[in-house]
């Protein structure tokens, strides 16, 4: 079998056009060994709205057909296609953009003004910083100091 990085690169190259043609975005791919076996996980998303089971089924069928065609994995594995999940950490600018105006939880590597974690409304972002509104006050935070940021579910 090819190494994991090459496998993931190949899968990304092959799956992205399939997912995009269905109107979705390829968010992430991982190949993991778990107690139940090897799993190729493909995460899809939308610019607007959320992914549902029908979206996953459509994508899974076409991705499975492509896997049968290119046959990149020579060991037994399971294919899982799902949404990235509402509570996962932001990974890219698309995640930030999609969540402008939403309540987010920001965890810092080290305390800032005595706080290691804050919750507030994401107002804006750029490559260097994010703007969070709390108690009618907007504060900018350096993105390099942020360990994780995710949507607040409460």
Question: What do these coordinates show?
Answer:
The protein has a 5-stranded antiparallel β-sheet. Strands 1-2-3 form a 3-stranded mixed β-sheet. The model has no long low-confidence stretch (mean pLDDT 95). The chain has helices spanning 4-21, 53-70, 93-98, and strands at residues 25-34, 37-45, 78-82, 103-112, 115-125, 129-134, 137-142, 146-151. It has 3 helices and 8 strands. With 154 residues, it is α+β, with helices and mostly antiparallel strands. The protein has 2 domains: 4-82, 2-Layer Sandwich (GMP Synthetase, Chain A, domain 3); 93-151, Roll (SH3 type barrels). α1 packs across α2 (53-70). It is 27% helix and 41% strand.
Which structural traits does this protein have?
elongated; GMP Synthetase, Chain A, domain 3; 27% helix; five-stranded antiparallel β-sheet; Ribosome maturation factor RimP; 8 strands; alpha+beta; 2 domains; SH3 type barrels; 154 residues; 3 helices
DSSP E strands, number:
8
What percent of residues are in strands?
Answer: 35-45%
CATH class of the largest domain: Alpha Beta
Poorly predicted runs are none
CA-based gyration radius: 18 Å
Q: Terminal Cα separation, in Å?
A: 44 Å
Helix content: 25-40%
Provide mean pLDDT, rounded. 95
What is the CATH fold-level name of the largest domain? GMP Synthetase, Chain A, domain 3
Brief synopsis:
With 154 residues, the chain is of the alpha+beta class. The chain is built from three helices and eight strands; from the N terminus they run αββαβαβββββ. It has helices spanning 4-21, 53-70, 93-98; strands at 25-34, 37-45, 78-82, 103-112, 115-125, 129-134, 137-142, 146-151.
